[in-house]
Specification:
single chain, alpha/beta, 13 helices, 46% helix
């Protein structure tokens, strides 16, 4: 089974006409589950490089758009349709969820070059880390997550790996490639397939991790993911952010911070219970995770005991 099915259109957006058509297809989309899955490719992606392509999978439309940022430049984000919708307003919207794997360098590039401050981001890398059993010291890469957690067939995973390896040889200087390949026009077929297949696999990973986070007793980790995602975005926009820092492989949670977060969480739940405020922390009910799961202080204490019994993190 191919990752990008025959029912999925791949469209290169490199003109005002195709851009307006795309924007018209982004109106009134479902938010639960999210409809938009995206990724950026570029030359040294970040504040010191450039964005070449924004890959966008619009799941309900079964369409993958490769938006040519290299050619369109600022107009890719500033152009609005008759409904006043632009890529900038969508990326910055707090009510339209967007799914990506590791927002940090993508956020850095969007903010540094186009003054776009992304919002309502669902970071699959953090979702995987939160739902992982055992140690949470280091984050996983996309390849590992696809191999371990993607619901697609073994054949589809092999197809994705083959496409990735072929593209890597084209753009990775360590393998004889060059990043400028992303700026060659027309976009070569190997890069088209690489970009398309990356975003095509994101919905499957989202469904796997989101299902785990929605299980009873997981409200704590929903909140941790949401706050860590906001922290990533804030960090990526800071003057001292380094997208190539070795510490980027470290997760946002260690044993001490988890224990402190649990204590704070239990205190909040107990405070609300004592004040007859059985709202289950409604202020966190956004970005898709808004269904009450019957969380109580006893659930939180149980988590901590389980962690201590098993000798491992959540």
């Amino acid at each position: 089974m191919s990752i990008v099915s025959v029912q999925t259109d791949i469209t290169v957006v490199d003109s005002a006409t195709t851009l307006l058509s795309l924007l018209d297809n982004l109106i009134s989309l479902a938010v639960d589950p999210p409809s938009l899955y995206f990724d950026l490719e570029g030359v040294k992606l970040g504040r010191h490089g450039s964005i070449s392509i924004l890959s966008l999978y619009v799941l309900p439309r079964k369409k993958i758009y490769l938006i040519d940022i290299h050619r369109l430049g600022t107009t890719a984000f500033s152009t609005t349709n008759s409904s006043a919708t632009s890529l900038k307003t969508i990326l910055e919207s707090p009510t339209i969820p967007k799914v990506i794997f590791d927002i940090r360098n993508d956020s850095d590039a969007l903010f540094s070059h186009y003054e776009i401050s992304v919002d309502s981001i669902q970071d699959l890398q953090l979702m995987e880390l939160a739902t992982r059993k055992g140690l949470k010291d280091f984050v996983s890469g996309l390849a590992k997550c696809i191999e371990k957690d993607s619901p697609v067939s073994t054949e589809a995973k092999a197809e994705w790996q083959h496409t990735k390896e072929g593209a890597t040889r084209l753009y990775n200087p360590k393998k004889g490639g060059r990043y400028e390949i992303f700026n060659e026009r027309p976009i070569i077929s190997e890069i088209v397939q690489y970009c398309a297949r990356d975003v095509a696999l994101l919905p499957g990973l989202y469904n796997v991790y989101n299902a785990k986070l929605r299980q009873p007793g997981e409200k704590f980790w929903q909140v941790q993911v949401r706050e860590a995602t906001k922290d990533r975005i804030k960090l990526s926009q800071s003057p001292g952010y380094d997208g190539q820092a070795k510490t980027n492989v470290c997760g946002p949670w260690d044993k001490k911070s988890i224990e402190q977060a649990i204590d704070d969480w239990n205190n909040d739940v107990m405070f609300n219970a004592l004040h007859d405020e059985d709202e289950n922390l409604d202020d966190y009910e956004d970005n898709n995770w808004y269904e009450s799961d019957g969380m109580s202080a006893r659930d939180c204490i149980g988590w901590e005991e389980d962690m201590m019994k098993n000798g491992e993190y959540f």
